[in-house]
Design goal:
Layout (H helix, E strand, L loop, with lengths): L4 H37 L5 H9 L2 H9 L3 H4 L2 H25 L6 H27 L1 H7 L2 H5 L3 E6 L4 E4 L1 H7 L3 H4 L14 H14 L1 E9 L5 E12 L5 E10 L7 H9 L9 H18 L2 E10 L1 H8 L1 H18 L5 E6 L2 E9 L2 H16 L2 E3 L2 E3 L2 E9 L6 H17 L4 E4 L6
Parallel strand pairs: 11-12
Antiparallel strand pairs: 1-2, 1-5, 3-4, 4-5, 6-8, 6-11, 7-8, 9-10
Helix pairs in contact: 1-5, 1-6, 2-5, 5-6, 14-15, 15-16
Length: 431
Amino acid sequence: MGLSLFQKLTESELDNCINEIDLVVEFHINWLSELNRAIICHTVTERKQIQNILITDEYFKRWYHGVQDKELTEMPAFKMLGVIHAEMLKLASTLLAHAGRQENICVDEYDRFILLTHELRSQITELKNRIKANLQLVAKLMGKVFENAEEGVVITDADSYILNVNQAFTNVTQYTKEDALGKKPSILHSGNHDKGFYERMWDVLLREKRWQGEVWNKRKNREVYPAWLSITAVLNNNGDASHYIGIFSDVSAKNEGDERLYHLAHYDSLCNLPNRMLFYDRLRQSVSRAKRNDQKIAVMFMDLDGFKQVNDEFGHGVGDELLQQVSKRVTAVLRESDTLARIGGDEFTIIINDVDRVESIDAIAVKILATIQENYFLHDLEFSVSASLGISLFPDNSEDMNTLVKHADIAMYKAKKEGKNRFKYYNKSMQ
């Protein structure tokens, strides 16, 4: 038996979080290169040019201030990122001003700026390591799947003391969270396995950091049942196990809930749209088919304009219903062969297959923007929002699906900067 859908999703969501940070670093490095060129070569002469260079690091600020997870924002490494970045922007402004006046570089200021770039990089590395080791945050990244999964999930510390369990754990074992916290998983032992079984299991787990197999466990009412169990070690910076995640299912009812679990793993629970995992799976298929048939596809990255204000003013309930309405409107504009996915918050991605000419993409983008801009009536309230769309084309802009999404995101941000409620195609000058 391979990895469960739940386990794949857990690893995928954690990877997505880390990849998003890596993407921020990539944008930041591009900004540093442009900034250094301007400072050393004195290529800026006007205040507007200075401002244009400074705002090109807006991607970092947008990511940093957009993070909502309390477990992440309260990490010292995360807080330090904001402090360092603010000082970097202040120093960058000063250095660019000197360059604009054709003055010599202040060595102390420039050295301090370079030191800050190293500190920022170091803190980002530290943040990624802390995220991987923070099981509370990892559980949150799992989202509703953690609580709603049909599979039982138990998280322990390095000494195997239980730190957290989900509802399915209680449903299967009859032990409540309060019963389990602070205990060891040995409370589930049925007595059907000898000491050697568990010794062999731990030998594999310690050596390979992962074990899976069938075990006989015992419920609180002493009923014995077969379970399929997968245990994964979570490693710290030194490569040692800091936590263990156990995922199990009652094999006696193996087929119950499989379809529901698949849906939870691949669809956004709010809008019932494909989530990030399913989006990339479909994009992979679209790219492969387009290569075989020598066709074009378009990837769109869409962000709502004014959604935060609606959320803040009218509450998350109205905000959630607004997202559902937007999803229905955009789905109605697209063909069945296309894909609309929600990848988080008010961000959506779209795959347009079988593109015969760019003008047809223009028409779809115009329809999407128009339908989103129509007034909304929710809870006796009337309001409107708009959207910014970025578009990248296969194979024109790239043949790599991750790069296609990245380019569409860059183009979307360009559309937002130029006034919102519009669409932009990616081009190299946006880098």
